[in-house]
Amino acid sequence: MRKRYLHLAVILVITGIAVNLLYIAIYAASGSSYGKYTWKNINGSWYLCDSLFGFIQTGWHEVEGQWYYLDDGSGVMQTGWINYRGNWYYLSSAGIMQKGWRLVNGKWFHMDGSGAMQTGWQFIDDNWYLLNEHGVMQSGWHYDDGCWYYLDNTGAMRTGWLTKDNTCYYLGSDGSMLTGLQWIGKDLCYFESDGALRSGKKPSGDSSIVVHINIPNYNQDLFGYPLGCEGVSLYMALKGLGYADGMSIHEFMDTMPSGANPYLGYMGNPRVGRDGENTGKRTSIYPKPLAEWGSRFATVEDLTGASTEKLEEELKAGHVVLIYATGGWKTPKWQVFPWSKNPKGEVTNNHCLSVVGLCDDGSFIVNDCGHMPAEYRVDARTFRAVYEARKFAVAVR
Question: 252 CB contacts (<8 Å, ≥6 apart)?
C-alpha cells in the first residue's frame, strides 16, 4: 500500500511540472523573454513573469537596465504617474521609469536619479530651477520667502540685469530682486520698491539722488588702522578722484604727520587700540594738518567752520567732503584736555568719514571706512546735529 502511494505522489509531481511547462509554452508566443523574466500580454495588459515557472512579478523590477513598476496586487505593468512611498514617479507608455526633465501634458517636471519627482528649488546643470508643490517647473516672476525671483522661459533662475516690458531690474547673485540704493559694479543705482530701475523720475516714497561721487572703500580695521579713520578717509577720497596713484594705503599712512596734539598732527598711533601707548590721548588729526598733508597729493582745503550748505555746494561741484562726526552718529561726548581750544573740550567719540552724495530731501550719502555696509544714507536732521557740533570738515577737489 505504501509503495502505491509513493508512486502516486511521484506521478502528481511529474504532472505538476508538466502543467507548468505547458503554461510557459502556451504564453511564450505572446511574450518577450529577457533572461530570467518574460513579458506577457494578457487581455491587453502587460505582465512580467518568471521565465522558468511563469510566476507573475510585482513591485519594482529592473529589466535590461530599465526600471518598471508592476502593481502590488495584480502585477499589471503601470504607466503614467504613480505614488510610491510618498514619492511620485513617471512611467512612460512602455512602462519605463523616467529620469531628468520630462514634458507631461504640456508641463515640465524633473525626476532625480532615483526617478522621484522633485519640488522646490533645485540646482540642475549649473542652473537653479523652481518646481512647485506639484513638481511643475515655474517661469516668470515668483515670490518666495520674502524675495522676488525671475525664471526665464527655460525655467532657469536669472541673475544680473533683466529687462522686461521696457523696465530694467537687477537680480543679485542669489537671484533675489534688488530694491533701494544699491552698488552695481562701480555705479550707485536706485531701484523702486517694485524693483524697477529709477530713470530720471523721483522714486516713490523716497528721495532721489541729486549727486553721487564714486570712491573706493577701505575698511580701517581690515587694513590695520583701528584709530586711523581720518587718514583712511583722506586716502579713499584721493583714490576716488584719481590721486595718490600707485601708492598703497600703508605707504600713504606712513606719511601722515604726527603731533603733540591733533591741531598739529596725528596724536597717538593709528595702528593700535586706545590702550597702551594711546592711553589718555585724543587719537586724531584735525582738519588743518589733515588738509596740509592731503595738499601734497591734490587740492585739499580745510573747511573748518563751514555751514552744511557749504558742504552741499562742494558735493554739487563734484568734490568729496570729509567731516568729523561721531561713531554711530551718536550725541557727541566732550572732554577737556590741556591743549583744548574749545571751552567744551574735544569730542571723545570722534569718527571721520567721507561724504559722497546728496539727496533731494536733504539727506546725505556717506562712505564710511569704519562701517559695514560702507555706503549708507544719513537723514538731514541727524547729519546737521552731529556735524554742526564742531563744523570740522575738509574738501578734496
Answer: 231, 235, 238, 244
Q: What are the phi and psi torsion angles at 329 (to 5°)?
A: 55, 35
Range 151-160, long-range pairs (CB < 8 A, 24+ positions): 155/108, 155/129, 155/130, 156/127, 156/128, 156/129, 157/127, 157/128, 157/129, 157/130
Residues 246 and 228: their CA atoms lie apart, in Å, by: 21
- Strand, coil or helix: 5: helix
* Peptide linkage before 373 cis (omega within 30 of 0): yes
Which three cell numbers mark 364?
A: 546725505
103: Cα within 13 Å, side-chain hemisphere:
3
| Burial class for 232, CB neighbours closer than 10 Å (0-12, 13-18, 19+) | buried
- Rounded distance, CA 174 to CA 378, Å? 28
Distance CA(84)–CA(94), nearest Å, equals 18
Residue 296 CB-density burial (10 A; 0-12 exposed, 13-18 middle, 19+ buried) = exposed
- Phi, psi (deg, nearest 5) at residue 366: -120, 150
- Residue 367 burial class via C-beta count within 10 angstroms: exposed 0-12, middle 13-18, buried 19 and up: buried
pLDDT bracket for residue 210 (50, 70, 90): confident
User: Is residue 98 within 8 Å of 111, Cβ to Cβ?
Assistant: yes
Sign of CA dihedral 335, 336, 340, 342: positive
Chain segment 344-384, per-residue pLDDT in tens: 999 999 999 999 999 888 899 999 998 877 888 899 999 99
> Which residues sit opposite 41 in a β-bridge?
46
The three three-digit cell numbers of residue 139, written as one number: 517661469
